[in-house]
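Sanity check. The docking grid for heme C depends on where the pocket ends up, so I'm generating a full predicted complex first rather than guessing from homology. Inputs follow.
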Amino acid sequence: MDSFEFNKIAAAVLITALLFIGIKELGNFVYKVDKPKKSAYKVEGIVENTSKVKKETKIEVQLTSIKPLLASASIEAGGKVFKKCAACHSVNKGGVNKIGPALWGVVNRKIGAVEGFKYSTAMATYGKNWSFEELNGFLHKPMKYMKGTKMGFIGLKKDKDRANVIAYMNSKSDAPVPLK
Ligand code: HEC
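Predicted complex below; grid placement will be based on this.
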């Protein structure tokens, strides 16, 4: 190959590369769409990016057992609390997986075990059952209680809300556990 021919090939390669970059840049320019800073559809309590949850500096107060509160819990009030969950979960018999897994019969069920739902590794490998106390801890601060969960929900601060919603979920089962 003489040097003239080599130069021709080199030029052709260079031009192709430039064209390619040019088209890509043009594409970026034409298709650049600014993402809105906030999503238009907001549901209270939902954390949009679970990896960006601020580290809390407060000293954590140990949760006490939910058992005494369950004895006087209201299934009806729990149904109202569940409205916060219903954007992501169905709880009725035969309900399907939504953003979160179907919750019919969740009390005492194996954690992370609904067929066909793609759990985070954290939940899929947790290896326990949803006892009342596990639910209590998880629903208090999901992302803190189970590091790596993809349930983007801030949690239920009030003990009473957790007791009521746990009683409500317990009632949504073929075999509800007696609460008293
Ligand atoms: C923004 C959507 C969202 C909201 C709101 C939400 N969850 Fe979830 N939930 C999820 C996702 C996603 C998972 C699966 C988490 C994982 O794989 O780490 C989950 C998992 C669960 C599980 C474990 C189920 C199983 O099969 O092991 C329970 C129990 C639960 N959620 C209860 C609740 C309750 C009660 C509320 C309301 C107080 C609630 N969630 C609110 C998305 C949500």
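Relevant for the grid: The chain has a mean pLDDT of 87.
Also worth noting: The CA atoms of residues 81 and 165 lie 6 Å apart.
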